[in-house]
Design goal:
Transferase(Phosphotransferase), domain 1; three-stranded antiparallel β-sheet; two-stranded antiparallel sheet; 6 helices; 5 strands
């Protein structure tokens, strides 16, 4: 795996959460747009990431934003698709173990908790990413893992402690909406 200098987005979020040092909204949104571009490109190639979270995003020394850890990645294909061209054949396989949830609570879409996967799974995670970029907290806060999963399944988003513009709130609200 290539060494990417810089820091993870999680490290940057924790730094600003604990130091209270200002991180301008336009910089956070610019970073968010870059992640959205990476996800949109993957989706254009019929690839799902399925584990979008701050720990899997690296911030390079020169403004690069790299979406890493494609270990849960999944290639969406039809029976008619010729998938021999894939350089990463593990994307062809179903790596999820039955009875286990693969992903990160707080960023994991309800359909993933139930064992499904689709483009909307990544959209949900991107919505959770926007929420944490705005609030420095995950969107589904609870005392334990079971509580986080239940809140996620119900779509019970934690009320932000900071004021968020309605136009931006509508983006993560739509992405995190339970169907």
């Amino acid at each position: 795996m290539e060494l990417i200098e810089g820091q993870s987005l999680q490290e940057k979020i924790e730094y600003h959460r604990f130091t209270k040092e200002e991180w301008p909204l336009f910089q956070r949104l610019d970073l968010f747009y870059k992640v959205c571009d990476a996800v949109a490109y993957a989706h254009s190639k019929n690839i799902l990431h399925l584990d979008i979270k701050p720990d899997n995003i690296r911030l390079g020394l020169y403004g690069e934003v790299i979406l890493c850890d494609w270990g849960l990645g999944y290639y969406i294909y039809d029976d008619e698709d010729d998938i021999d061209y894939l350089e990463t054949p593990h994307l062809k396989n179903e790596n999820t173990l039955h009875g286990y949830i693969r992903g990160t609570p707080g960023f994991l879409a309800p359909e993933r908790i139930k064992g499904g996967k689709s483009v909307s799974s990544d959209v949900f995670s991107v919505g959770a990413l926007l929420f944490i970029l705005l609030t420095y907290e995950i969107p589904f806060i609870a005392e334990n893992l079971d509580g986080i999963l239940k809140r996620t399944l119900r779509g019970n988003i934690t009320e932000p402690k900071v004021k968020i513009p309605v136009s931006i709130k509508s983006i993560y609200s739509k992405a995190l909406k339970v169907n």
